[in-house]
């Protein structure tokens, strides 16, 4: 009998998702594990867009949609690359609206609807995909409309309770709190490498607060709350902590685990749960949410950095597509 791995144990505690789009990698994990969802972001889409295995598909798609602009090509390619993985997972594939437009409600809405149209064209039903929406006031107002239209959403780039409450008010299916800030994956000095992440990691209290708020909201309203899909892990122990804290799922990258020196992060901002749940964060275009984020320096900085990081991937994809278009 094969030894039980940390991944095996984690799967008994929550849903294990894959945060990567390479079909060969996902296939290589079968039958050891069949991931539930496949998540992604602009960085992962850009990497796959530049992979040699997708070169001909990109050229063909660009030729078909050359008169509709780079975004139409990008969106169709992202969906077609997800289609390669849909039969190797049991749940949903997830794609993210443009981070460069995270504060534009109408653009976020139109891009999500374009994804919906492309998924339909690819033969992927709404119960097999979900659209990742940046957790800003304007974007979550778009998420609320999408949910009403039957398009499931996930609130991403989420770093605190106000964003989580806003996602609940929007009716999101999922949220993805970032356990580590995005820079920690490349800058070891920003990673709080602790022995017991569930009790020692500086972001664990935020995750626990979110779970407590959702329990309180469910008790008060009887309304189902977003499922917590924790993300941005650097070590297996951090993913295990998601199970210990009671998260619904953990989405885990393919990248090798890093070995870095520990650093304690600043003391986290404590938010009064009652006050947080009584604010309408989506009112007036989401101004209350954006103000709450601005009042939390750690969350504000991490949100800005995450959006800038993903926008970099978005811009590189645009350049790749425009380069192909120039050859047609």
Explain what this protein looks like in three dimensions.
The longest helix is centred in the last third of the chain and has 29 residues. Helix 5 crosses helix 6 and helix 5 crosses helix 14. Helix content is 48%, strand content 11%. The protein has a single domain, classed as Alpha-Beta Barrel (TIM Barrel), CATH 3.20.20. The radius of gyration is 19 Å and the shape is globular. The protein contains 14 helices and 8 strands. It is an alpha/beta fold. Helix 2 links the parallel strand 1 and strand 2. Strands 2-1-8-7-6-5-4-3 form an 8-stranded parallel beta sheet. The N and C termini lie far apart (55 Å). InterPro entries: Aldolase_TIM, TAL/FSA. One of its GO terms (molecular function) is transaldolase activity.
Spell out the blueprint of helices and strands.
Elements: H1 6-11, E1 15-19, H2 23-28, E2 38-39, H3 42-49, H4 55-65, H5 70-83, E3 93-96, H6 105-121, E4 129-134, H7 137-148, E5 153-158, H8 161-170, E6 174-177, H9 197-200, H10 204-221, E7 227-230, H11 236-245, E8 249-253, H12 273-277, H13 287-294, H14 297-325
Descriptive keywords:
schiff base, single chain, alpha/beta, 14 helices, TAL/FSA, 328 residues, Aldolase-type TIM barrel, TIM Barrel
Number of distinct beta strands: 8
Most strands sheet:
8 strands, parallel
CATH H-level name... which superfamily?
A: Aldolase class I
Radius of gyration, taken over Cα atoms and rounded to an integer in Å? 19 Å
Order of helices and strands: HEHEHHHEHEHEHEHHEHEHHH
Count of individual helical segments: 14
The amount of beta strand, in percent, is 5-15%
Protein name: Aldolase-type TIM barrel
Pfam families: TAL_FSA
GO biological process, one term: carbohydrate metabolic process
InterPro entries: Aldolase_TIM, TAL/FSA
């Amino acid at each position: 009998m094969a030894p039980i791995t940390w991944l095996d144990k984690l799967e008994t505690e929550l849903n294990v998702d894959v945060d990567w789009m390479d079909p060969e990698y996902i296939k290589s994990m079968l039958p050891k594990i069949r991931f539930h969802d496949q998540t992604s972001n602009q960085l992962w889409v850009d990497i796959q867009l530049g992979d040699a295995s997708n070169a001909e598909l990109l050229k063909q798609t660009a030729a078909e949609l050359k008169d509709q602009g780079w975004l139409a090509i990008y969106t169709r390619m992202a969906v077609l690359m997800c289609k390669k993985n849909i039969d190797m997972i049991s749940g949903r594939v997830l794609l993210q609206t443009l981070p460069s437009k995270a504060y534009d409600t109408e653009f976020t809405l139109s891009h999500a609807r374009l994804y919906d149209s492309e998924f339909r064209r690819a033969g992927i039903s709404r119960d097999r995909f979900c659209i990742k929406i940046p957790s800003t006031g304007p974007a979550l107002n778009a998420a609320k409309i999408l949910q009403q239209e039957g398009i499931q959403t996930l609130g991403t780039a989420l770093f605190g309770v106000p964003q989580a409450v806003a996602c609940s008010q929007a009716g999101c299916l999922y949220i993805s709190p970032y356990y580590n800030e995005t820079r920690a994956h490349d800058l070891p000095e920003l990673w709080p490498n602790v022995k017991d992440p569930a009790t020692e990691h500086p972001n664990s209290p935020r995750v626990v607060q979110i779970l407590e708020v959702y329990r309180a909201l469910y008790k008060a309203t009887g309304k189902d709350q977003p499922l917590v899909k924790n993300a941005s892990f650097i070590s297996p122990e951090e993913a295990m902590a998601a199970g210990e804290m009671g998260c619904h799922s953990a989405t885990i990258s393919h990248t090798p685990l890093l070995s870095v020196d520990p650093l304690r992060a600043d003391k986290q901002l404590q938010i009064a749960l009652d006050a947080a749940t009584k604010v309408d964060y989506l009112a007036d275009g989401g101004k209350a949410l954006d103000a709450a984020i601005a009042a939390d320096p750690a969350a504000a900085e991490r949100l800005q950095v995450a959006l800038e990081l993903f926008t970099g991937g978005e811009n590189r994809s645009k350049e790749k597509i425009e380069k192909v278009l120039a050859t047609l």
